[in-house]
Structure formats: C-alpha cells, structure tokens
Specification:
- There is one protein chain.
- The relative contact order is 0.15.
- Strand 7 and strand 8 form a beta hairpin.
- With 307 residues, the chain is an alpha/beta fold.
- The chain has helices at 2-13, 20-32, 46-55, 72-76, 110-113, 117-122, 157-160, 174-186, 199-209, 216-231, 241-257, 265-275, 284-288, 293-303, and strands spanning 36-39, 57-58, 61-65, 77-82, 87-92, 99-103, 124-127, 130-133, 139-144, 165-167, 197-198, 235-237, 281-282.
- It is globular.
- The strands form five sheets. The protein has a five-stranded parallel sheet with strand order 3-6-9-1-10, covered by helices on one side.
- The two termini are 32 Å apart.
- Helix content is 45%, strand content 17%.
- It is built from 14 helices and 13 strands.
C-alpha cells in the first residue's frame, strides 16, 4: 500500500512542484472518499493539481468550467427527444465521471452550484425522475477564487459542508519556483504522465482505510471537538453531524497512509484542523474582528483533551 501511495505522490509531484503537503492532503481525501475544495488566487496551480491527480489514475475524468451562464443541466445532464425512436433519451452530464473538476465553482450561479448537492452526497444524479449512479471511485474537486475577487458568488453553507476539506495551494518557495521555471523552459512542466493506479486500487484502499480502528476515547475526543465549535462564543453555527463523520473518516485515512490500522490522538486533531474550519459560521462580531476560522479551531484543539 505504501508503495502505491508514494507512487501516486511521485507522479503528481512531476506536475506540481514543491507542494508535497498539499498533494498528501488530496490523496488522503481520495482514500477517505471525500471531496476537495481548493481556494486561492488564479494561477497558482489549482486546476493543474486536479488534472495531475486524474492523469495519475486510470479512471474517467471530466472538467466543468463554471461561468455565470452555466446551467444545472450543463452539469447533471438532460433528457432529449429522439424522433427516430419516438422517446426521450437521457444525455448524461460531465458529473457522471469518477474524477470531476468543477473549475471556478464560485463564478457560477447559486442555482447551478446546487446541482452538485445531490451527487456529492448520494453519488447519483436524477434526470426526469431517473436515478443515474456515478462511477466509483467518485470525487469532486472544486476550485474557487477568493470571495473578494470580482464576479464571484459565495458558496452556500450546505455546499461547503459537502466538501471534506478546504485547502489553499499557495505560492511555491523560491527553489520550487526555480525548478518549475526550468521545467517550463524545457517543455516538461505540462507533460502528460502515465497512470500509476487503477480505480480498483483506490476502492481497495478505501475499504482497508474504513477498517482502521478508532478507540472509544478517541471517538469521544472527536465529538467533544465538534461540540466545542457549537458552544464557542465567536461561532454562530457550529460544525454539523456530517462534519463529525468526515472528521472520523479523514482521520482513518491519515492513519492508513501512515501504515497504521488504528488511529492516534494526532490523527483526530489533524483531521479536525482540516475538516472543520470551512464548516463553521462566525458571528458578525467575530467577522468584524477578522477572526480566522483556522485559528479558532486551533484554539479549540488546545483546550479540548483526550479522556
């Protein structure tokens, strides 16, 4: 297993220079069966990261370039009348693929954003009353520009809650920028890589990760962390029950990648720091005070202890 994970990471690092930590988080989310939201300024490699992952896996991939005029049917699909057969034919949308990149998701309308809610949770789409399951494994990678940029529609809380983690790619370090520039000039930066894992490999990893044990004391620890977000004075709406389940599943994936069949407190804490911040809503006063959600969760982790 370890060799397969390392092989996937090495393959992605050929395209994404100097972002090993970000790649680790995306791979852990893939194994956990979750979805990833990448938020950062344009041009730092959000789309390239998603494409690097899809190229490293021999499974289907589709990209949805979200614009203000993108409609829900552009994502899910639609029914079209076939005059030759005198019947309606379902035309599946790009969402019916294993890896789906929803690029610049916050540049499309809230109605279109909502088209992803069902499929991200239930792994199926409904077109004219007909349920169409998506292939497995299934993962949505959404990218968005910072909300203060022009032409963006903030994602609703229900949409954010569907993403297991929200991360920022960030600018590369100086040495990584130099290596990237050299690869660009040599024409190897955007070279297509060969797949190193199959869909079955990912499903087998998921099945094994789900068997990672979590002691009852750690379950209580995770619950106390989530409940602490609900009672914090600076939080208007705390983490949901779905957030708790995501926290546990991501913790299992972290332990699995670390070649353990059991979770430790550090797995729970690391998972909480990744899965909770984007799910909580701050009070108006906290927003005016420019309180960072990540810092708030960090404070909670410092106060809550394992039983």
């Amino acid at each position: 297993m370890r060799e397969k994970v390392l092989g996937l990471k090495r393959c992605m690092e050929e395209r994404i220079v100097g972002k090993g930590d970000v790649i680790d988080k995306v791979i852990a989310t893939l194994i956990a069966g979750g979805h990833v939201l990448l938020e950062d300024v344009p041009g730092v490699g959000k789309t390239t990261l998603a494409k690097a992952l899809s190229d490293a896996l021999s499974i289907s991939f589709a990209r949805i370039q979200c614009t203000p005029d993108t409609t829900p049917s552009d994502i899910t699909g639609f029914s079209m009348y076939d005059s030759n057969k005198n019947e309606f034919k379902v035309m599946e949308g790009p969402i019916v693929n294993s890896i789906v990149l929803a690029d610049e998701l916050n540049r499309t309308s809230p109605k279109t954003q909502a088209a992803l809610l069902e499929v991200m949770e239930e792994h199926k789409v409904t077109i004219d009353g007909k349920d169409i399951p998506v292939p497995q494994p299934f993962m949505v990678i959404g990218t968005q520009n910072p909300s203060e940029q022009a032409g963006t529609y903030p994602l609703p809380e229900s949409q954010l809650d569907r993403f297991m983690i929200k991360i920022s790619v960030g600018y590369p370090e100086t040495s990584a920028s130099v290596n990237m520039a050299k690869s660009f000039l040599e024409g190897t930066l955007h070279a297509k890589t060969e797949p190193v894992l199959s869909g079955k490999d990912i499903l087998d990893m998921r099945a094994e990760a789900e068997k990672v044990s979590i002691h009852d004391d750690l379950l209580s620890y995770a619950v106390k962390i989530v409940e602490a977000t609900r009672s914090n004075a600076e939080v208007a709406v705390g983490a949901s029950s779905r957030a708790l389940l995501s926290l546990l599943r991501y913790a299992q994936a972290l332990a699995y990648v670390d070649e353990r069949d059991y979770c430790i407190p550090e797995d729970i804490a690391s998972s909480a720091a990744m899965t909770l911040p984007h799910r909580i809503i701050l009070t108006t006063q906290a927003k005016m005070g420019r309180v960072e959600k990540e810092f708030l969760v960090k404070q909670i982790l410092e106060k809550v202890s394992v039983s």
